């Protein structure tokens, strides 16, 4: 019997059969977990939910099913002022206390070997090693999620993972099974808008916002509770790559994000994030036109302001990637007194799933004894044995209550810091239903669209063209157009134009001009600090110009690197030298935030003859980055594809000219004014005016 014949009894194709559990019991609903009332907590007796999630959690050995590719760093957190009014969590009380943290950034879909810069959701998980035990704030860089109920989590991940027959594509949503899931699951609409926006291709982990996604509770010493959502606000602002740049980086430097973070910390440019909270009083729970427990909805910051309560500084790289980054285990159920849960149905499922996942990934129930997971608070309990047990327990007593050791360890009272769950009244029939308040799937997707700048909207349209254009099934493409007609009719028309589908016969008006300006990256912090500038040089450069500009960049916290055709030392026109950091083979414009071309006639004469140098300029311009040129350096711009823009500074006498993010000065020896304007332009991140003048952008 050949191998095919041996395998035949195990092959199975699903047709029109009725859905069952693995025990053969027919399932009546696989979209909603069993709850106490349609807004109540998920019940543990839901055997279908537990079986479905358990099987899903154990599908990969040994890498994580999701968030497999990650990078971790150490740091600390300090609260700005006591939060006792809102929560009794001890680490949020004393501004003088530095709470150690470990943060793991990650992509969701790809395997451990995938690229950093793929279009994807990014994980932003923080472990606080507090005096009261470990607290894990497990979030993403997008504030909403694809689904409302955790029972659908296996479905969305199965759909977005590579197609099962050929394991293609890796780390991408641009394929049939994912978009088939989307068009059959309208609750995904809001998340899709975020996923296809610039948020899904961050410039750096250091410039990436984080969100707790789910709704939690703060509980103070008096027992008063408030609903809360968590935010991490990067002090460098929220910035992104452009799609063409992200794709090229995936080939040129697939480790781009982890390298960027590693290098920044090694150079002392420590990433900083402010912890913010949105809070809603319990009596205001139903005062909004969205359900505050719905994980596919944001709480608009204009409506519910973010209170910034502390700052996290990341200042330490790991010593061993496997021992720390790979073995760290996060769980939303790792909370401390003062932080509690809500009935958010996605959160309720995560409270089961994360712990269950660690049992197989890390070899059993003792993963808390791995050094990176050990709390700084002492551990005292009667749990014993199991795989990989490290503690050597000397007592013969491992049960409660007991007399032989005076009933120790003894449960702590609330006054002694014992965790007491918030007393929420729960009642309702056991049902597999979703609350009616969860049924609006499009209004916040429209809100997001309305909040985008012109450039951001164009990027979303182009993302649809790539993602949906990669789908093979024509009917799915059409369904995508029809679905997003519910978000915005003109968006649907433009999607259709790019994917070969029929535009909607009646493009729908959004019906609302409501927007949330805070979700647009155009309204973020803009600073040149920690940005990277490439300087194109050859022998015969003007050392005075280069040194003046480099000194100004360094003073502004901007890093610069000399790029040339060959590695080694370059000699200026007056005999001084600089070392080349990278050549064209080992780097590219996509790895820098800006470009500077200094004068020096011999240097420029050589660069003019180098196609790599001209490509560097053209690509930098295409990606809307700042370009600076001084004196003869302007002549190099004049030979490139952007000569029409460079013309503005071609004949100007000792005056700084800025045109579409191209900063130039001619016939000048003092670079002070140029450097000031160049640094200001770098801080803008991109110059989207070029996008509106495409005839000037090189292909």
Description:
This protein is an alpha+beta fold and 699 residues long. It has helices at residues 3-7, 47-57, 153-160, 176-183, 189-195, 243-252, 256-266, 322-326, 345-361, 443-451, 454-469, 474-484, 489-499, 543-555, 601-608, 611-622, 633-638, 643-646, 672-683; strands at 35-36, 70-79, 99-107, 122-130, 133-140, 210-211, 216-219, 225-234, 272-281, 307-317, 339-341, 430-431, 532-536, 559-564, 569-571, 577-579, 582-583, 594-597, 626-630, 657-659, 662-665. The strands form 4 sheets. Strands 2, 3, 4, 5, 6, 7, 8, 9, 10 and 11 form a 10-stranded antiparallel sheet that branches. Helix 3 (153-160) runs antiparallel to helix 4 (176-183). The radius of gyration is 28 Å and the shape is globular. Keywords: Heme, Hydrogen peroxide, Iron, Metal-binding, Oxidoreductase, Peroxidase. It is an enzyme of class 1 (oxidoreductase). InterPro entries: Catalase, Catalase_AS, Catalase_clade2, Catalase_clade2_helical, Catalase_core, Catalase_haem_BS, Catalase_immune_responsive, Catalase_large_C.
The residue-averaged pLDDT reads: 93
C-alpha-based Rg, rounded: 28 Å
Query: What is the name of the CATH topology of the largest domain?
Result: Catalase HpII,  Chain A, domain 1
Structural class: alpha+beta
Going by CATH, what is the homologous superfamily of the largest domain?
A: Catalase core domain
N/C terminus separation: 57 Å
Overview features:
metal ion binding, ten-stranded antiparallel β-sheet, heme binding, Class_I_gatase-like, 699 residues, peroxidase, Rossmann fold, 16% strand, iron, globular, Hemocyanin, N-terminal domain
